[in-house]
Specification:
Strand order of the largest sheet: 1-2
CATH architecture of the largest domain: Orthogonal Bundle
Structural class: mainly alpha
Order of helices and strands: HHHHEEHHHHHEHHHHEEHHHHHHEHHHH
Distance between the termini: 31 Å
Radius of gyration: 24 Å
Number of domains: 3
Strand content: under 5%
CATH class of the largest domain: Mainly Alpha
């Protein structure tokens, strides 16, 4: 995840950066923020708005960092104040941008920036008195509730990062059910009323900006009409759905073999808690259950390798930095190592959800993680550093262009690097011995292990925002929040909860990105784009073997080509950036299907005679 310190993150946290300030009753509401810009031309307005936003974003980012890494009532309160300030500023500028956009003969760059100002707010508040304060307070509270969330294992309380890890290693169906049910009830349950109120306020703000609802505003941020973007998402899903269907059928059969009909039936949906992940969004943690005979043992386990080589959190991050250095990128700044959160502090509550930060829009880049020495976090480190290197590459752009070409680009860069964590790469960094490199007969295992995360994620990546779009449009009412969530999970993922879920629960809130108000379409797009990027990088490196074996580690020509795309930031429409790196102006699932074609063919053979679908 990237921390979007731009228009989308100005609803952040605030702290007395310039010295201690007294916290008193006045801290319950935002300060007066002068956001009225006196300008006669759209160009002048945009320049002034960018200056205001740049200055405020560096202030808000520092405070949001403190709130996320030191969760207390005081930092929550101060976060709400700054969040209200940022929301008011963004909404005021958006309203003014809408007026300037009516002028004739606008420069195309200025017009695009006006559109960014108008549509770049995640949760806009209406202009009526107190709305920004209320919206910010709710948003801050929801995120804090998630960060402090606890589940239960064997009757004992367990925190968020530990329960996520336990869901990946535990094979006791009763305990998996206990963890799943307790996390969803304890974390999501109390949020529903606040979430409903937040949606109501944000929709009012979106309508003032000229959008039908907040979901329509989110979909407007992709250099195409909102309706066309939704259609593009559906088309991409249909491209790759046949591959997912084969994987689902195979995994369901293996779970039935392990647990029996009483736990997992041979047909129908898969029980969510059996898939090694709290949200059934990635299934790689149960690879040991589904590994194919003969090809399944790929000869090494990433987590074991890291432990054998005495990796710790810092050494894992150093490995990620080394990958980028091998492509010709400059080393991370000294402040990155001084200011990042690498492990969970023992003395306080923090938000452990992994994220990458850019606090000054220049060089103060950081990651925030609670790193555990395992294969999943090794990959996550590479992913988060992808954000950081992207942030630094476009640092010389103007403020509104300090972002990815679209938000899927930002997520895909790190994932592209993770695809290059092949056996060949592991040998080059001395994590794997040459004699441990699996032969071609192990390719099915290698691809299945990848698909358990990459392919399994696709329908979840799609349905999260499909649910929110329905909530924002009013098609999904508060009384139907939970039922609609599970209907979508069943429709797209073929997943069912392990226990009956009451309609008044709020299971969406048990997923960080819902209370955190992080749009999720970017993650779906990233799963598609990373394969397009990866294939383009492998082609540029002159790779001639199977696509899934390619590693472009150490190829500075690839690094130079990649940097040319990254440094554009959001200064060009995403088709321009995509074309410059891949040669195509369309997002496509073809590269992903090429990557997994040997696996898809194998799965079809394994699934002969089995009932597909759910």
């Amino acid at each position: 995840m990237k921390n979007w310190i731009s228009l989308t993150a100005l609803a952040a946290a605030s702290l007395a950066i310039n010295g201690c300030k007294k916290i008193d009753d006045e801290a319950s509401s935002s300060r007066a923020v002068d956001t009225k810009i006196e300008a006669t031309s759209a160009k002048d307005f945009v320049e002034q708005a960018e200056k205001h936003l740049f200055d405020f974003s560096t202030y808000a980012a520092k405070v949001e960092w403190i709130n996320s890494t030191y969760l207390t009532e005081d930092t929550d309160a101060l976060a709400a104040i700054s969040g209200a300030e940022g929301t008011k500023m963004s909404v005021d500028f958006a309203l003014q941008a809408a007026e300037f956009a009516k002028q004739d003969g606008l420069d195309p760059v200025v017009k695009r920036k006006l559109d960014m100002l108008r549509g770049g707010i995640v949760m806009p508040a209406p202009t009526k008195a107190g709305a920004a304060d209320e919206l910010s307070a709710i948003a801050t509270s929801l995120q804090s509730q998630y960060g402090k969330g606890k589940g239960v294992l064997r009757g004992e309380e367990i925190n968020g990062s530990d329960i996520e890890a336990a869901m990946g290693t535990n094979r006791n169906p009763a305990e998996l059910k206990e963890m799943w049910a307790s996390w969803h009830m304890n974390v999501g349950g109390p949020m529903r009323d606040d979430y409903s109120r937040m949606v109501e306020i944000a929709n009012e703000g979106s309508k003032e900006l000229g959008f039908a609802d907040t979901g329509a505003m989110w979909r407007s941020n992709y250099d195409m009409p909102a309706e066309e973007f939704a259609e593009t998402m559906d088309k991409l899903w249909l491209d790759v759905k046949p591959l997912y269907d084969e994987l689902h059928t195979y995994v369901r059969g293996k779970l039935n073999e392990k647990y029996g009909d009483s736990v997992q039936a041979k047909t129908g949906p898969i029980r969510a808690d059996l898939l090694g992940n709290m949200w059934a969004q990635e299934w790689g943690n149960i690879y040991d259950i589904v590994a194919p005979e003969g090809a399944g043992d790929i000869g090494y386990d990433m987590s074991d390798l890291l432990l054998q080589k005495e990796y710790d959190a810092i050494k894992m991050v150093k490995a990620g930095e080394d990958f980028f250095s091998s492509l010709g990128f400059d080393p991370l700044p000294k402040t990155f190592w001084q200011r990042s959160q690498f492990v969970k502090p023992a003395d306080r509550e923090v938000v452990c959800h992994a994220s990458a930060w850019d606090l000054d829009n220049k060089d103060d880049i950081r990651i925030k993680m609670c790193i555990k020495v395992n294969g999943d976090d090794f990959i996550t480190v590479h992913h988060e550093l992808g954000h950081n290197y992207y942030q630094r590459a476009y640092k010389d752009q103007s403020y509104l262009h300090l972002n990815g070409a679209n938000d899927g680009f930002h997520e895909a860069i790190g994932d592209m690097l993770a695809l290059s964590i092949t056996p060949d790469y592991l040998v080059k960094i001395n994590l794997l011995d040459q004699n441990q490199v699996p032969g071609a007969d192990k390719d099915t295992g290698l691809l299945l292990r990848q698909a358990m995360d990459k392919v399994a994620f696709l329908p979840f990546g799609l349905l999260v925002d499909k649910w929110r779009w329905g909530v924002f449009s009013g098609e999904i009412k508060p009384a139907d929040y939970n039922n609609s969530w599970h209907e979508l999970k069943r429709e797209y993922q073929g997943i069912m909860p392990p226990v009956e879920r009451p309609s008044d629960a709020f299971d969406p809130g048990a997923k960080y990105h819902i209370p955190g108000n992080t749009p999720y379409a970017r993650y779906f797009l990233a799963r598609i784009l990373q394969f397009q990027f990866y294939k383009a990088a492998c082609d540029a490196a002159g790779w001639e073997g199977p696509l899934h074996r390619c590693s472009f580690y150490g190829n500075k020509e690839v690094g130079a080509k990649l940097n040319s795309m990254l440094e554009l930031g959001a200064s060009k429409p995403w088709p321009d950036a995509l074309e410059g790196f891949t040669g195509s102006r369309e997002m496509s699932g073809k590269a992903m299907l090429e990557y997994f074609k040997p696996l898809q063919d194998w799965l079809k053979e394994q699934n002969k005679g089995k009932t597909k679908g759910w």
